[in-house]
Design a protein that fits this description.
18 helices, five-stranded mixed sheet, 428 residues, D-Maltodextrin-Binding Protein, domain 2, single chain
Length: 428
């Protein structure tokens, strides 16, 4: 009888941690390995809500802003963390155990996940952006990729490598609308083409020749050399296209490199190479800086249990666990110095130096060739950007799909952004 009572007590005390996450490969691996955490922590049960990126951002923002307590642990990033923390929507990450070794986490990522010197999220992986390309296809055409390609190079290579009869597209890029989907890439394109979102007085600068040149280049490039239905493709769709051998060039997150080197996921694991993200008029803002990180909403029903899992999932030990399960090339990148110091990682991940250099040289405080009143590379660090960035993304995706001209898309975007900054009180 005593045994039954103890069992009932243990079940009654078990905490459920509901986790909202994006459906990226690294998070799928985390869910796969999470029973090991539950075995070691029988008082905690994990409940996963895995959705695509745009849905995640919408649901998480609604949950934390209303305090509904639907989620105990959420994936957010460098954009949301300081904004949410400032509004009092997140629990501070305190009392981290000494073996967590927070100083091992790259300072730039720690700082981006902090507000007023306090840490509000633990980074699961970090990333910049770079060019991934098929070295075999370039060699077959007698082409050589420079260490620092330009967008003129990209256009030349994409034209030369497109072979639609064989189902190979010269390039694939994000087209799915969303501030963190197509606009994450498009913002880097805009920056390097010399564009800004605003002048120093918060006047929108979207209906300018620079924006028209950049977006026309993007639309024309994908129409000529991209896959059909490009306006529906986000990170995961493009990863699948490239990994299945259907694209020659792909400019996207450095975190895509690991899956491309994993022979169980990629048909081109022995054919992929890497270069710096392309530049045009300026290197400023040509590659982004991001981290997917765990944060605990203030109204979490199980904050202590949620933090315990977040610590486990972002630890050195978890990285080694992934290495044992899926290989060193696939471990969560971009967060810890110890990962990049590892001889095993250096050997298995030839893309690591490119990733690290891109992350360490990306400068969110100086994203444009001209002075601007904001920080951020693939986002603008103001709360309103989540809304108007998505509207602009929808307009640009519409132009890519042929629903409207680039000029119409930019005119509509200029009007929408003007309304947003006026309502926010930024533009007098």
């Amino acid at each position: 009888m005593t045994v039954v009572l103890i069992g009932a007590s243990a079940i009654a005390e078990q905490k459920t941690v509901t986790i909202a996450t994006v459906n990226n490969p690294a998070m799928i691996e985390l869910k796969k390995l999470s029973p090991k955490f539950e075995t070691a922590n029988p008082d905690i049960r994990l409940n996963w809500v895995v959705v695509e990126e745009n849905v995640l951002r919408q649901r998480v923002t609604t949950d934390v802003s209303t305090g509904s307590g639907q989620f105990d642990l959420v994936f957010i990033g460098l954009y949301e963390t300081p904004i949410f923390a400032k509004r009092g929507w997140l629990k501070e990450m305190t009392n981290l155990p000494s073996n967590y070794d927070v100083d091992d986490v790259f300072k730039g990522i720690r700082d981006g996940l902090s507000y007023e010197g306090k840490l509000y999220a633990l980074p699961f992986y970090g990333e910049s952006s770079m060019l991934m390309y098929r070295k075999d296809l370039l060699q077959a055409k007698g082409l050589t990729m420079p260490e620092q390609p330009t967008y003129d190079d990209i256009k030349k290579f994409a034209d030369a490598l497109t072979d639609k009869a064989k189902g190979i597209y010269g390039i694939t890029l994000r087209g799915k609308p969303g501030w963190g989907e197509n606009m994450a890439y498009v913002d880097t394109l805009l920056n390097t083409f010399g564009c800004t979102w605003f002048d120093t007085k918060w006047n929108p600068t979207i209906d300018t020749p620079e924006w028209k040149k950049a977006i026309t280049f993007y639309v024309d490039l994908l129409k000529a050399d991209g896959p059909p239905g490009a306006s529906a493709n986000g990170f995961n769709e493009n990863l699948t296209l490239f990994a299945s051998g259907k694209a020659a060039l792909w400019i996207d997150a450095t975190s895509g490199a690991g899956p491309l080197y994993d022979q169980s996921q990629s048909q081109v694991a022995d054919k992929v190479a890497f270069a710096n993200a392309p530049i045009a008029a300026t290197p400023n803002g040509s590659r982004w800086l991001w981290s997917w990180a765990f944060a605990i909403p203030l109204k979490s029903k199980a904050p202590e249990s949620a933090q315990r899992f977040a610590e486990w999932a972002t630890s050195k030990e978890y990285i080694k666990m992934v290495a044992e399960d899926a290989g060193w090339a696939t471990v969560p990148p971009g967060t810890r110095k110890s990962t990049y110091d590892s001889p095993e990682y250096q050997k298995a991940a030839p893309f690591a130096p490119v990733t690290l250099k891109a992350m360490q040289t990306a400068d969110p405080t100086n994203p444009c060739i001209k002075p601007v009143p904001y920080t951020g590379i693939q986002f603008i660090s103001i709360p309103e950007f989540q809304s108007f960035g998505t509207v602009v993304g929808q307009n640009i995706s519409g132009a890519l799909a042929g629903k409207e001209t680039v000029e119409q898309a930019l005119k509509e975007s200029q009007a929408a952004v003007s309304r947003a900054v006026k309502q926010a009180g930024l533009l007098k």
